[in-house]
Structure formats: C-alpha cells, structure tokens
Amino acid sequence: MNDAGREKLRNSKPYTASETNTIDAPDFDSGLKLLTENGSVYLEINLSSDWCTAQKRRIITSSILGKAIVPGLPFENPDGSAIVLDKDYWGKQRNESNPSPGPFEISKSGKQKIKVW
Description:
- This protein is α+β, with helices and mostly antiparallel strands.
- Helices cover about 15% and strands about 20% of the residues.
- The protein contains 3 helices and 5 strands.
- The strands form 2 sheets. It has a 3-stranded antiparallel sheet with strand order 1-2-5, with no helix packed on it.
- The model has no long low-confidence stretch (mean pLDDT about 85).
C-alpha cells in the first residue's frame, strides 16, 4: 500500500456492521470435515435447504458492493465490466430469484461431499 492509500485508510470513517435477517439455529450441526482422497480435496458438510427459503437474497453485483474504501474504486472485472456473481464456486448457475448463501448453490438438504479442488 502506498502512502496515499495509508493516509486514506487512516482517515476513513469506521462503519458499524450489523447483520439483519439472520438464521439462528444453535442446535444445527454442520458436521464439517475436510477430506483428502486420491489427490483431491473434499468438503463434507451437512447443508440445509431451509437456508435458501428462510431469507430472501439477491445476486451480488458491483452496484451492491459499491466502492472499496482505500482506492475509492468500484469492484469490477479487469476489463471494467460489472461483477455479477450469478454462478457458484463450480460454475453452476445460481437461483437468480433467491441464490443460496455461500460459495455453493444448495439444491438439497443433508450431508454432502463437495469437491473443492
């Protein structure tokens, strides 16, 4: 970070973060495990499709992200086009009317084994 960036960060106003519309499920056990098999890495996790229906979400875009604090620049692709996160980690199309939270589009509940790399 250059001196101008440091100064801008030092002079930036603190933002109060707050989460709204959260899902409180203290008894839910995700059973999260990271597994290595035959040179590949898998995430084993218990997912709930309730996470997809309990809240209304929208596709993340450059306009939702706004501008980065330090450079004051918009979040965009290298070619200057807007970011639209309409695909999940593996390129699966997201539900445009209410996408799943997190990196994977959730299509079913229960224990799942997802190849990470």
